[in-house]
Here is the input.
Amino acid sequence: MLTPNAVCETASLSLSEGLDVLLSRKLDKLSPGQILEIRSDDASIEHDLRAWARLTAHPWRGMRTENGRFVCFIERGAAQRIITSNSISATDGELHARRMVVEAAGRIPPAAEPETGFSPRGAVVEKGSPRFPFDVVDSAQAWNPEASDFYEQASSAQWNAATDIPWNAMSVACIDPESERCICQLMTFLAENEFAALYVPAKWIPRIHPHFVETILFLSTQIRDEARHIDVFVKRALVNGGGLQFSSASTQRSLKTLLDREDFLEASFLLSVLGEGTFLDLLRFIEVHAPDPVTAEIARRTRIDEARHVHFALTHMKHAVASDGALKRKLFAAARERASALAEVKTINPLVEESLVILAAGGLRPDNLPKGVRAVRNLYATMHENRMKRLQLIGFSPSDSENLSHSHTPNFM
Amino acid sequence: MPKKITVGAVAYDPKVVTIWELINDFFRAREIPNDYVLFSNYEAQVDALLSGAIDIAWNTNLAYVRVHRRTNGLCKVLAMRDTDVAFTTVIIAGTNTGIATLGDLKGKRFAIGSRDSGQAAILPVYFLRNNGIDSERDIHTIRFDLDVGKHGDTGTSEAAVHEAITRGEADAGAVGDQYWARVLAEGRVDRGKVKAIWTSPPYCHCNFTVLDKRYGKDLEQWTDVLLQMDYNDPAHRQIMEMEGLKRWVRPELAGYKPLFEAVEVLGYFNQSA
Here is the structure.
């Protein structure tokens, strides 16, 4: 008589009602050669189970009747349902196994395997999965220890472009047409830059290995932020009937170099440290000089989001620079290369610069214009100083920082 | 350059092309120049094996029996699937027909599959006869001669048998155990209407057949390589899933005895050859 290694009570459950699920779970826990006893009240069980056992390659070991019940025996076959080398069983209730499972989810691989595909980090992955085209697979490039905190911050700081901006205040604000045109021009410029800030992380997400999930999640919030910014800038340009204004070829050329960059760290450095970093001062300027509370609130809220992107990138760069001695040189070269590619871009879109002057001057009155010009000059100086601070934070020398900041695109982003 | 080895197979489904392309890749990666030729029916494939147009035939049990008869036994089996060993036929019956044993089938409408299907026609008729039920005299036989030439490979005649019982157009019928297990697992059996009442003695199904005069070192090596295919190796799993096996095994010729007897007793080749 066979001695079973496990017993399965099935009442009169049949194969079309889930018996196969029950049996598969029981058989998974047995080793090849071990015996599963199945006790059933279903008179058809012998025929059904015999056929099923053969289909699933578990040897049928016979049936006997016992007090009117049917007792069947199946031997666990050698075929694995899922091919893995990892023997951790998720159903194992032992504490140490649980800890192993939890630790596996938190373990950051120095170099991630392309074969693990979209499986979440820590999952047991079946062999034979297809290779994915991820090419950012080193943790030094793709991950930083604060990424998950940044993601938490970003998640709780989300706002709504339709309901969190005091659009009603627009109707009572009295803005002269010239200032309104300036705002519309600035909103056009901001929106086009934010498209770049959306497309660049969007381009990199499919290339970063999913095991660096903290970075992926943060970048997805960055994309969400930029979507909201594009929305709110366009809304502001349209709300008073002014409409979208001019987009210059030099701006487009400058932004395209960010999208064209084929290295994740270089692209993040150029976009977020230098570009979005510079935008913080621009947005602060617009907030201070805004002729209406709606524009001021838009500039304030978008600046807070952008500051998060800049801080994330700074943290990411510091971490990457610490693990790769040659990285600073690479980033420096990338920034210089971009500067030479943009050599013909000498100034910002003149309509944007004029709009900033007029905004700070409060209009086109000749006696006020010098104030506006001074304010814009100060803005540029502030942008330069802050860029240098950020570059030094990453570890660039004061002279390299000076050099890089000076060669930064006049387009700001 | 070793001589090419050409395997014949019957294209009972479009997936057969994919299967044999994968098998080609598998053999060629092991420096065996495998190729395949597809046939629309087993009779044409048997003729090709006998004429030497192909080296190996991936045969049903009935096609193997035919080769055996036509060569007076001067043929060999190289290998088969684990699922070809201990194949059985399951007799299924309408739940409300009162049929619980083979004896209850007398006088009832009994559905069988294609006349050239080992599992759904020839063997069940033979097994019933061994159990005292003559398919001509004792029951009303309903035949589903679908896809004749494919020897039941498509499963369409088994589905027709199952369907006829579900609808009450037949009281009972015969299907292969693989068909039965699959529809059970896929939840396509209405338990209120159909149940299994009997499982036949085991018999063997498909195999790779060769002629004795063609057999040699190269085919021996071909067989050894085939047997290396491993279900637990992800690179091989796709072929094995598609072909419906977990392991290739050496032949178990005793398992063909029931079919040899069946075709003899029923005069199968006299009627339809």
